[in-house]
TrEMBL record:
GO terms for molecular function: ATP binding; NAD+ kinase activity. Pfam families: NAD_kinase (PF01513), NAD_kinase_C (PF20143). Belongs to the NAD kinase family. This is NAD+ kinase family protein. SUPFAM superfamilies: NAD kinase/diacylglycerol kinase-like.
Amino acid sequence: MRVLIEPNVASELSHIETYTEEESHLLGKVVDFVVTLGGDGTLLHVSSLFKEDVPPIISFHLGTLGFLMPFNVEDYQEALDNVIKGDFLCTNRMRLMCDIYHKQQLGTNTPSRSFQVLNEVTIHRGSNPHSTVINCTINGHMLTDIIGDGLIVATATGSTAYSLSCGGPMVHPCINCILITPIAPSSLSSKPALLPDDSVLKLNISQKGKSFTTTLDGTRSIKMEQGEHIIIKKSYYPLLTINKTNETTDWVHGNGKLIEMSEKSSIWNQSVHTTSAN
């Protein structure tokens, strides 16, 4: 079996083969499956490595929550044996294609930059003290102006991340949809909405607003100015994650861990407040 590791850890494991930046675009064609070790952020990082086809990914939990990491690292041998034998099921996770249009590309069909996004695209005011004003159109039809701290455009996979903390719903990862969730909107009528997966969103920073920041999967941030825009639609290249049991059982189990952590946090906060009061 041929094993490859990422270039950024190659110096620590010099006896294992790696690849160059020039060869990275071939990964989807030559890699049979991917092994990740860490937390959910590790999976987001792996998603960013594959611009097109993504091989099945088996994720071992080493982080704090591990909502997307169903396997325990202690069970690695049995889990990997099953993968090598082809005895596994996958969840097909929709990704988003996010095209950024800066001023130089306005009026053209060529974006400045394009990204594959697994969780969410977040348009927010960043350090700007003023509210953002975002013109939101769907399939060429004006939906609304969103005024507030920003907007989250998420997949079903990303529905349990930032979007959830802003009041968005939890969505099963097998539901192909686009979820839009306002961040601290100034209007009480601005609510989260689920859109069909063939929707094409165009988000334009209004001339009434100030500059804003676009953050992709919580890792990469891009500054944008008045008049520039983003186009978001379903990607042609989903991300395949290997299930420990099946797509629904893993999702329900992950939700249980999320709720359990939330309850522990509440208990801890109550303890802190009680101690402070005493």
